[in-house]
Design goal:
CATH architecture of chain B: 2-Layer Sandwich
CATH topology of chain B: Heat Shock Protein 90
Radius of gyration of chain A: 34 Å
Strand content of chain A: 5-15%
Number of strands of chain A: 5
Structural class of chain A: alpha/beta
Helix content of chain A: 55-70%
Number of helices of chain B: 4
Distance between the termini of chain A: 112 Å
Strand order of the largest sheet of chain B: 1-2-3-5-4
CATH class of the largest domain in chain A: Mainly Alpha
CATH superfamily of chain B: Histidine kinase-like ATPase, C-terminal domain
CATH class of chain B: Alpha Beta
Number of domains of chain B: 1
Strand content of chain B: 25-35%
Oligomer: heterodimer
Largest sheet of chain B: 5 strands, antiparallel
């Protein structure tokens, strides 16, 4: 009987495809496909239904299915398009088979449903797996990318390094900041480290606590930590919270922090002689000849 | 503007979500940047307390609009172990987790109104209000 069902469905594939296309087209009004052009939607539907039939015919999942889902993932089609499509296919096929049979008892009905499920189930599973696999891949890539960005240490000058912090600081990142800071201070022989919090949106007690600990650890290995980039509103909230940041120097901007870092390492910024003057001198000396 | 929206706190990153929603609502009400920072920080403290001590809970926001007053009310609710000694946690420098111990007293200073109800074994509910001036 299984083989009979299969041949019935395959022989009448045109009718089923027609019914399926009609149903899926009517689903197009739903929000998720409204931005897709009619032509593309139609051609994708045809391809989709061909993929379904070829995998039923070949008694298994074809590489066509993988190719098809991969292409849809790359185009950014929602997963719900595929799962909805498969549900519609299940419904349409069962309807069709039942309409072709003379007598329908409960046993026959359950056999039909089982058979159709056996066709549809694996395809849905494969599609969902492909999609979630690609999402997991993206998430893991972004996690790595974020981690690389999360606590950079830049040696700007001999003995002076800067750690610019941008974005939210959570416990995991705070740990990374501490490790990178201490490693970097020793690696670059830094006397002064500037921690720039211009890009940190909220400084609560947890963030302040981690910064204080990091600064204290830097002090223990013999360097000075300067906290820079404290915006006025952050300064006010720190005062309201009652956080004590007097143990290390703080500055409003990286520029000011850098100046005091230079002072701490016995250096200063000197403006060189103006270029215009030297050119004039050059011209004068040329005239003299 | 009479709506209430909540953020469930289960993971550490939910704190960021609560903060962002709170900041957006505060901006809509018309708070300035300094008050926005205060509100975001207060939400951060309340949400972190839920995450650290109760494990899970929620933070709700409500825009208040009286005849002559506008403001934002934030309610943080959890069903955690509760707070043993309320007067102690409102002291500066008291912490059971090795933190700075500035969280709750800090929130009280950041906001205009502060209400705390805690029952041991039942949970904690903190309601704070910031008025628009």
């Amino acid at each position: 009987m299984d083989a009979k069902l299969k041949s019935l469905v395959l022989e009448n594939s045109n009718d089923i495809v027609k019914m399926w296309l009609e149903e899926v087209q009517s689903n197009k009004n739903k929000e998720y496909t409204s931005t897709i052009s009619d032509e593309l939607f139609e051609s994708t539907n045809r391809e989709f239904v061909n993929v379904i039939f070829s995998s039923i015919e070949n008694q298994g999942l074809s590489s066509e299915l993988d190719d098809f889902s991969e292409r849809l993932i790359n185009l950014g089609w929602p997963l719900s398009y595929l799962t909805d499509g498969m549900q519609v296919f299940r419904r349409v096929t069962i309807d069709f088979i039942l309409s072709q049979s003379d007598k329908v008892d409960s046993e026959y009905l359950s056999r039909v449903m089982q058979k159709v499920d056996a066709w549809v189930g694996p395809i849905i599973n494969r599609l969902v797996n492909e999609y979630s696999g690609s999402w997991e891949h993206i998430v893991s890539l972004q996690r790595v990318a974020l981690q690389e960005l999360s606590a950079p240490l830049i040696p700007v000058m001999e003995n002076i390094t800067v750690m610019p912090l941008i974005g939210t600081i959570d416990t995991e990142r705070a740990k990374l900041i501490m490790e990178n800071l201490l490693d970097g201070v020793i690696k670059h022989h830094a006397d002064v480290v500037l921690i720039d919090i211009t890009g940190v949106p909220v400084v609560d007690t947890m963030v302040a606590h981690h910064i204080i600990q990091a600064a204290e650890a830097v002090r223990l290995i013999g360097s000075t930590c300067i906290l820079v980039g404290i915006r006025p509103e952050i300064a006010q909230t720190i005062v309201n919270l009652g956080i004590d940041l007097t143990k290390f120097p703080t500055k409003s901007s990286l520029r000011k922090g850098f100046q005091s870092a230079l002072e701490l390492t016995n250096r200063k910024i000197v403006t060189t002689e103006e270029k215009d003057e030297s050119i004039e001198k050059l011209i004068d000396s040329l005239d003299g000849e | 503007m009479d709506f209430q929206s909540c953020v469930n706190i289960k993971k550490e990153w939910d704190i960021v979500g609560a903060r962002q929603l709170g900041r957006d609502i505060a901006k809509k009400i018309g708070f300035g940047t300094v008050d926005q920072a205060r509100i975001a920080t207060a939400i951060s403290e309340l949400a972190r307390n839920i995450y650290l001590y109760a494990g899970s809970g929620k933070v709700c926001f409500e825009a208040i609009d009286d005849m002559n007053h506008k403001g934002l009310s934030i309610i943080a609710v959890d069903e955690g172990p509760g707070i043993e000694e309320l007067s102690q946690v409102m002291e500066d420098g008291f912490s059971t987790s090795g933190g700075l111990g500035a969280g709750l007293p800090g929130v009280k200073r950041l906001m205009d109104e502060f209400d705390i109800v805690s029952e041991q074994g039942r949970g904690t509910e903190i309601k704070v209000v910031k008025w628009l001036r």
